[in-house]
DNA sequence: GATGAATGAGGGTTCATTCAT
DNA sequence: GATGAATGAACCCTCATTCAT
């Protein structure tokens, strides 16, 4: 199938070893220069193997990219659960998960960007598989949120939306690293983000005019703000659906 | 300089016309297939011009990409302010800005992704220029936030962080469109996001254990959660710096 | 379709000119060295064009081979009819056709061998097309034979078999040129061949034992020739079926 | 010398066994796909040995081809004499030889074609050696012819020419198998061919105009048909054929 | 100003051959 | 003797770029 990468070499340990070797080189180079710009020759050189060898473990240049991206996403799936081991308190688990996510991204900023940039270069099936892996790691976060909600620590929020917000926030550390790096550590960055996401931003006073941020109001208001808009009372408690 | 794109053609209106023609084609193709995979010949064909003609308005293939990305970012800078025209109320302006940002991204999802994927293919100087444009559009949001804070509608939040959170949330509509599209309209998506970002997530009960999400606590706790951790009271009011 | 060779260049005269140029080089090189051994670069060099140019008139290396083989077979179809122009007498036409076939092969020995050697390198459809062309040139011979038969100059022979015999005989000039070249001219070769094919080989005396060459007799005789065999009278007049 | 194939293995029986194994695979694959297209790896796989092993019995990929072609030609030299064993009558021996040639070719059509297609891929010396083997098998036929002539069964024909005609006719069974296979058995094919070659084709009446097939006459006639030609009255209502 | 034929450097990929085990 | 992982030269083909018309 177009999904699997088949190696011409049989010995599993060898396949394992060589793939690690090749993928390490590939991730570095693709991350730094981009996938299309990097030649197989360069990958081979950096991996200290011959060009021909790569093609014994991989069918295509695209295969290398695929395996590289899988490896990156798998590293998330390996590391986040580790950070939760031994933790029982839901809130604590939640915090640990988010911080772990942030940390693992911080450790592989280039690799994370690589996933964003080059997933599109893969065929549909493989793209789907990567999505599945992303959903899987999102689940690590959303499970924690649900626990917090179940235990009454969080309001009845829209779990999926909150999850994506957190995930995107973590990814943003990579995507916008030029903005934050050097000014904050990843830990500080996550702290502040959680602070913001978990605490109310709007003041009591602000609540009165809050309705105006809702699109249903805006549809009316757009272009000519009606005085009525200001009178609309804030919606209470969202009714999240799943 | 490596920054400017110089055309061999003198007549300004012609340059304008041809560039629009070429860039439209380029953005579509780059967006759909990727920059490296798209050939100049394909761009020429789709723009109904000859290959040679492109090279009269552009020096490089990279030039085409640069102009394309600039055009996308400029379109944000054109459209968001438009949505704010005539609005005075800070909260209303804030909502309108975020919704406008969401809308403009929704209208050009592929183009937005293009910026994410291919900015790296440009030289450093041009990359900086694109960043500047992004900061400029972020400013459109952060200004609104600051107004809300100034008027006491928002708490004294970390403005930059909130801005990025909102921006990333809007971008996520493009980046994760496969997750949300078809299930929500962009307006609903933004509504829910704002809802989540502006309202408290943590319950009164949850606040007691909130300290455990903070990295400073976690650093201690990691691996062996101390009972003490649970007693730590939540930090009050973040001290945002700019 | 897999059959057609499409050029990226539009101007027909140019296509014509370039193809001739390329094919001349290709036929020479493929003929001398073999198709697989010859690189496109070599063809380009010998044709005084760049590698890239070849690929504007041809999609594949295989396309070059196909066009080359077609060109060879077409040259037969062009030249043989020419030799018949103005001739009316059937026997004369027959002789002229065979001599022309011999001559055209003699002029392009290498090219003729090329067809034999490399037809298999083509896809099935193209192979069929070449066969059709061969049949077409065989027809030029078989038509002459039929005329001779019709006019009572030839016995009622198995036309197809005789045709193939003649054709193979002509091809043999190329296939076994190492045997005949230098010892005979093509004209002498054809003379002798026709001599042999048209005149009786078996003597009156030989006829009595002729039956023994027939497989139906041999089947019985094989290993232990029966005396009966000798009594069998020679078959008269073959009954060709089609 | 470039002629010999030297094996690194000492044990003769092993060399024998392995070579048979390898050559069987090679002849099949080269015959089906062509020599250049077939990889050593494919040959190894089909022969159920490792790539490395092949190189212990052979120095080159070309060696494999050489041995394969030799094996094919040797099989002719083995089988034809067998068919003559016990036969004494010259005409009978002639018939048996030709039929045997036909049969052995029919049994290895692909292999026969292989010789035609790939002999050129060998070096000059080896090519000469193959030619010698071909001449050797031609001798098997020509000897029979000479016997027939000696005994007055055949006219004093051009033996070599007749030999080649017969040989080519047999080869044609392979070379043009797409034309005859399924319509004739090899035995029928040979029968008809001999019929044609041994019996006069030209009628008594035809003989009068026969001179016109001779090249010496044609040289004069060419382009401007001799007056004689024009006088020949065309017989109308000739025997219709198919 | 516009065209598109021509160029050729460069990249992906294959495969004969070697050699350590 | 046998294996098959490793090598790297070499080939097909693409495509950005030029330039004569």
What does this structure look like?
The structure is a homotetramer of 242-residue chains. With 242 residues, chain A is mainly alpha-helical. Chain A has one domain (12-198): Orthogonal Bundle (Tetracycline Repressor, domain 2). Chain A has helices at 12-33, 40-46, 51-57, 61-84, 90-107, 109-118, 124-150, 159-175, 177-180, 186-198, 204-207, 215-221, 227-231. In chain A, α5 packs antiparallel against α7 (124-150). Chains in contact: A-B, C-D. Chains A and B meet through α5, α6, α8, α10 and α12 of A and α5, α6, α8, α10 and α12 of B. Chain A binds a DNA duplex (21 and 21 nucleotides) through α3. Chains A, B, C, D: InterPro entries: DNA-bd_HTH_TetR-type_CS, Homeodomain-like_sf, HTH-type_TetR-like_transc_reg, HTH_TetR, KstR2_TetR_C, Tet_transcr_reg_TetR-rel_C_sf. Chains A, B, C, D: Keywords: DNA-binding, Repressor, Transcription, Transcription regulation. Chains A, B, C, D: This is TetR/AcrR family transcriptional regulator.
Features:
homotetramer; 242 residues; mainly alpha; Tetracycline Repressor, domain 2; elongated; DNA-binding
Concise summary:
With 242 residues, the first copy, chain A, is mainly α. Helices cover 68% and strands 0% of the residues of chain A.
């Amino acid at each position: 199938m177009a999904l699997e990468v088949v190696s011409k070499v049989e010995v599993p340990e060898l396949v394992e070893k060589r793939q690690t070797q090749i993928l390490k080189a590939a991730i570095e180079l693709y991350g730094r220069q981009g996938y299309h710009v990097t030649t197989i020759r360069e990958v081979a050189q950096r991996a200290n193997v011959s060009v021909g060898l790569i093609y014994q473990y991989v069918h295509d240049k695209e295969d290398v990219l695929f395996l590289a991206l899988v490896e990156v996403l798998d590293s998330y799936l390996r590391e986040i659960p580790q950070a939760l081991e031994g933790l029982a308190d839901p809130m604590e688990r939640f915090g640990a998960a988010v911080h772990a996510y942030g940390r693992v991204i911080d450790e592989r900023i280039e690799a994370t960007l690589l996933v964003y940039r080059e997933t599109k270069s893969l065929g549909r099936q493989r793209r789907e598989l990567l999505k599945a892996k992303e959903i899987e790691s999102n689940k690590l976060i959303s499970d924690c949120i649900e626990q917090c909600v179940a235990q009454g620590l969080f309001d009845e929020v829209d779990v999926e939306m909150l999850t994506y917000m957190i995930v995107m926030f973590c990814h943003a550390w990579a995507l916008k690293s030029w903005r934050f790096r050097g000014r904050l550590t990843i830990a500080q960055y996550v702290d502040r983000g959680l602070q913001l996401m978990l605490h109310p931003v709007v003041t009591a006073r602000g609540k009165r005019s809050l309705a105006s941020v809702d699109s249903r109001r805006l549809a009316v208001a757009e272009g000519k703000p009606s005085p009525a808009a200001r009178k609309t009372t804030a919606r209470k408690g969202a009714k999240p659906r799943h």
